UniProtKB/TrEMBL annotation:
Keyword terms of this UniProt record: Transferase
InterPro entries, per database record: Ketoacyl_synth_AS, Ketoacyl_synth_C, Ketoacyl_synth_N, PKS_Beta-ketoAc_synthase_dom, PKS_NRPS_Biosynth_Enz, Thiolase-like
Pfam families xrefs: ketoacyl-synt (PF00109), Ketoacyl-synt_C (PF02801)
Gene: hppks-1
The protein, known as: Polyketide synthase
GO molecular function terms noted in the UniProt entry: 3-oxoacyl-[acyl-carrier-protein] synthase activity; fatty acid synthase activity
CDD domains in the cross-refs: PKS
Family matches, as Gene3D superfamilies: 3.40.47.10
Annotated source species: Hemicentrotus pulcherrimus
GO biological process: fatty acid biosynthetic process
Domain Ketosynthase family 3 (KS3) positions: 10-347
C-alpha cells in the first residue's frame, strides 16, 4: 500500500464500502462485475411505462421534439421504495424524487457493505452527492398538486441532507451538479473534506434517473446520442452515447484508519484534481489543453509518476467530437513520460 502520506501532506483514501444500482439488475458489486465479464447487453428499448417511444422517435435529428434513439439503460422498478424502512410517510414518499429514494437505499447498502453502523458516526461523517437531472421536478410543475413535501422532494440540496437526516450524520453535507462530472466532483470534494479534517469518514454517492423524454430530446438535438443505442468509445463505429440510469455510493476513510480497523479495502485513491475548460471552441466542447493540465496537476500534486500508469478509465462518450479530443489530451499528458503503450477505455 505504500506510505500513508505524500510530500504534500495529503494521505491516501480507502474505499471500504459500496452500494450500487444499475441496469441489468446489477444491484451489487458482484452483479456489476458479472455484467462486465460476460459483456452483457444492458441497453434495451424504452418501455411504455417510461414514455410512448413511437410518439418521440424520429431518425431525423433536426425534427423538433423528437429523439433519434429508442434505447436507454434503465434499472428495474424505478418507483419502488421501502419508505417505512426510512420512516417516511406514504404521502411524503409520493413527492420524493426517485433519485432521492434510491440514494437512501444505496447509501444504506454502502454502510452495510462496510460493516459500519452509522449510529456510531455522528459529527465524524460527511455526505457528498453528485446529482443533476430534473425529471421529477418537471413532472410536478402543476401547482394544483403542490403540497408540503413537494419542495423537499425535488430539491437537489435535500438529496444530501436527507441522507444526513436519515442516518443522523452531522458532518459536511451538500450536493453538487457538474453535469457528467457530478459524481467525480463529489468524490473530489469528499476526499478534500477528509484531507481538511472536516470529517473522518465520507459517504459519497451519485445518481442519474430518467423519467421523462424531455432531456433525451434535448440531447438528441445536440447531436450526441447514438441512433442505434450503442456506445462505442474510441471506435471507428462510434456515433454517440446512450443515456442510462445508475446509482452508486461509496464509504471513504483514510487508508491508515481503514488498515487499523481491518476494513475490506476495495481500492485506494491517491489524489484528485478538478478544473474547468475556461473559454473554448464552444460551451459544450471538451478542451484538450484543459484536460491535459488537470491530469498532470493531479499526478504532480500527489507525487505519482505518470510513467507508472498502465490504464486510464476515460470519459469515453463515443461521440465523434469528444473521443478524439479526449484521446489527444491523454496522449499529450502521458506520452512524454513513457516508453510502453498506455491502455485507455471506458465502462
Amino acid at each position: 500500500m505504500g506510505s500513508n502520506k505524500t510530500s504534500w501532506g495529503y494521505f491516501p483514501v480507502a474505499v471500504v464500502g459500496i452500494g450500487t444500482r444499475h441496469a441489468c439488475g446489477a444491484n451489487t458489486t458482484d452483479d456489476f462485475w458479472k455484467v462486465l465479464k460476460e459483456g452483457k447487453e444492458c441497453i434495451l428499448n424504452i418501455p411504455p411505462e417510461r414514455w410512448a417511444i413511437d410518439n418521440f422517435h424520429d431518425e431525423d435529428q433536426t425534427r423538433q421534439g423528437k429523439m433519434v434513439t429508442k434505447r436507454c439503460g434503465l434499472i428495474d422498478d424505478l418507483e419502488g421504495f421501502d419508505n417505512l424502512f426510512f420512516k417516511i410517510s406514504p404521502r411524503e414518499a409520493a413527492s420524493l424524487d426517485p433519485q432521492q429514494r434510491h440514494l437512501l437505499e444505496v447509501n444504506y447498502e454502502a454502510f452495510e457493505d462496510a460493516g459500519i453502523n452509522p449510529d456510531n458516526l455522528g459529527e465524524s461523517c460527511g455526505v457528498f452527492v453528485g446529482i443533476g437531472m430534473m425529471d421529477h421536478a418537471i413532472q410536478l410543475v402543476d401547482t394544483s398538486t403542490t403540497d408540503a413535501y413537494t419542495l423537499t422532494g425535488i430539491a437537489h440540496s435535500v438529496s444530501a441532507n436527507r441522507i444526513s437526516y436519515a442516518f443522523n450524520l452531522k458532518g459536511p453535507s451538500f450536493a453538487v451538479d457538474t453535469a457528467c462530472a457530478s459524481g467525480l466532483t463529489a468524490l473530489h470534494l469528499a476526499c478534500t473534506s477528509l484531507w481538511n479534517r472536516e470529517c473522518s469518514v465520507a459517504l459519497m454517492s451519485a445518481c442519474n434517473g430518467i423519467q421523462l423524454p424531455d432531456i433525451t430530446v434535448g440531447f438528441s438535438a445536440l447531436g450526441v446520442l447514438s441512433p442505434d443505442g450503442r456506445c462505442s468509445p474510441f471506435s471507428s463505429t462510434a456515433n454517440g452515447y446512450v443515456r442510462s440510469e445508475g446509482w452508486g455510493a461509496i464509504v471513504l476513510k483514510p487508508l491508515s484508519q481503514a488498515l487499523a480497523d481491518n476494513d475490506h479495502i476495495y481500492t485506494v485513491i491517491r489524489g484528485s484534481a478538478i478544473a474547468a475548460n475556461g473559454l473554448a471552441n464552444s460551451l459544450t466542447m471538451p478542451s484538450p489543453p484543459a484536460q491535459e493540465y488537470v491530469m498532470k496537476e493531479a499526478y504532480e500534486k500527489f507525487g505519482v509518476s505518470m510513467s507508472d500508469v498502465h490504464y486510464v478509465e476515460a470519459h469515453g462518450t463515443g461521440t465523434m467530437v469528444g473521443d478524439p479530443l479526449e484521446a489527444e489530451a491523454i496522449s499529450r499528458a502521458f506520452n512524454r513520460t513513457r516508453d510502453n503503450p498506455l491502455k485507455i477505455g471506458s465502462v
